[in-house]
Each structure stands twice: as C-alpha cells, then as structure tokens.
Amino acid sequence: MLVQHFLEESTGRRPWKVGLICDGQRLTNGELEDEQGNRVGPGQTGELVVRGRHVMRGNWGDEEATRQRFRPGPLPGERLCYTGDLFSMDEEGFFYFVARRADIIECRGEQVAPKEVENVLYSPKGVAEAAVAGVPDPIQGQAIKSFVVTDGKEMTEARVLAHCRRHLEDLLVPKDVVLCKELLKTASGKSKKSDLQ
Questions:
Q1: pLDDT digits (tens, 9 = 90+) for 99-146
Q2: Which of 70, 93, 146, 175 is exposed most, by the fewest CB atoms within 10 A?
Q3: What percent of the chain is modeled with pLDDT above 90?
Q4: 59-74 burial, b if ≥16 CB within 10 A, otherwise e?
C-alpha cells in the first residue's frame, strides 16, 4: 500500500513515525478521517487520506476497488486516496501507523489493533516471528488468535500465554496460541493475515 513506503523506523524521540517524504519535500497534504468522514485531531485514530500529484489515480483493472479507495475531493477534478491505513497524530502533526483497517479485530465490542499484541509477542527470547488475527467467536464476536514461530528452544504455548497475561490487559490476551514452523508471507514480506485461521 502507498503508505507503507513512507514508514520509517526511528531511534529518536518519535519511534515508528511516518516519514512522509515525497520528492525531497515533506508531504503536508495528508489528513485523518473517522468512519463518518470527519477529520480527527491529535491523539485520535483515523484513516489516512492523501491527495496530490504523487498519488496514483486508481487500481489497474479493478473499477470496484478504485471506487472504494479513490473518491472525489472538494476541489474540481480532485481525487482523494483513502488508504485503508489507520494512523494517530501527535500535537506536532507527525503521523503514527496503528493498523490496516482490514486487520482490526472486533473483540467484545472493542477494536483491537493486532500490532499491540504482536509487539508483546515478539518480546520474549525464543520468539522469531509472531502474527495475530481475529477468528469468529460466538461470545466475543472475534477472538484473538496468535501464531508464533519459535527459534526451536524451550518456548511453549503456555509460556507465550503467561507472558501475554503479564504484559497485556485481559481484552488483548490471545484466546489461542499456535506454534508454527513458518508464517505465510505476502509478496512484500508481511504476514499473510488472510491465511491465519
């Protein structure tokens, strides 16, 4: 996705800020919107909407995806790109990636960003890779299920769950842990969430 090219890991005071650099200039034409199309401010989460000459005009050969992602803007002939990426913004206007909208887990009436859980799953020694997905649950709506690749040492499902219970609030603790030899990846090297069940 367009926004992923702008992500940069920083070791300064803004870890995981969005670089938002385009042709050597800071990109200032991005904004965040809630599900009703209202602009959101600092400390809130919304979908990143971008405009400008650098933004592609649509999805090649996919008119339905183009209609969903690229919508008319307030200026004549303008098209806005609704990225599908959720971000928050600080008081100085720097954006921080939260999650892909499609990856959000609806658990017990709350929205859970997989990244929150995955960050904790990566922290104990013995975990090489981790991914989280929402799976259907008759009581919770969706339950959090984690998939963990270990380095072959003493990591077990019980140890992963115990670690999560120590470091996550109850809502975020996975219902199930699956130890895997590998995680399927997309062409860009990211965990293939659609195949996690």
A1: 888 888 888 888 898 888 999 998 888 888 999 989 999 888 899 999
A2: 93
A3: 20
A4: eeeeeeebeebbeeee
Q: Which amino acid is at 178?
A: V
Whether the domain at 2-101 and the domain at 104-195 fall into the same CATH topology: no
Strand-strand pairing, 141-150 and 127-137: antiparallel
Q: May I ask the CATH class of domain 104-195?
A: alpha beta
Across-strand partners of 135? 143
- Whether 88 and 48 have beta carbons less than 8 Å apart is answered as no
What average pLDDT does range 89-102 have in this prediction?
82
Q: List strand residue ranges (DSSP E) for 54-140, in order.
A: 70-72, 79-89, 95-100, 105-107, 110-112, 127-137
Contact 121, 101 (CB under 8 A): no
Q: Is the pTM of this model over 0.70?
A: no
Domain coordinates of the chain in residue numbers? 2-101, 104-195
What would the pLDDT profile of 11-46 be if each residue is shown by its tens digit? 444 444 554 434 334 444 678 888 888 888 888 888
Interatomic CA distance for residues 152 and 169, integer angstroms? 28
Handedness of CA 130, 134, 135, 137 (dihedral sign): positive
Check: CB of residue 144 under 8 Å from CB of residue 107.
yes
Class of domain 2-101: mainly beta
C-alpha to C-alpha distances, 75 to 51, 79, 80, 82, nearest whole angstrom:
11, 8, 10, 16
**Angle (CA) 102 40 28, round 5°:** 90
Measured CA to CA, the distance from residue 112 to residue 164 in angstroms comes to: 15
